[in-house]
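TOPIC: backbone geometry
CONTENTS: sequence, structure tokens:
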Amino acid sequence: MGNTRPPNCDGLAEKYVDLIIECLSLHVNIAQSNIVVDDLNCPKIDWQNATCPADRISRHPLDFTVNTGMYQLYI
């Protein structure tokens, strides 16, 4: 993807989240494995418990990840 989402929580940050989800949506429907290596910069998401606050910057990526069967790999 190349660009990491800025850490702020303004309208521009929400647009970044929308663009990231849009890009991932194009690839998740392809019948092959996908590996995303990036920092989505969403520190309020608890990936292990699949919970987050209701703000758009946290909720949208978490919902997308859960709904598409993607998961976070912890190394």
About this structure: Residues 11-68 form one domain.
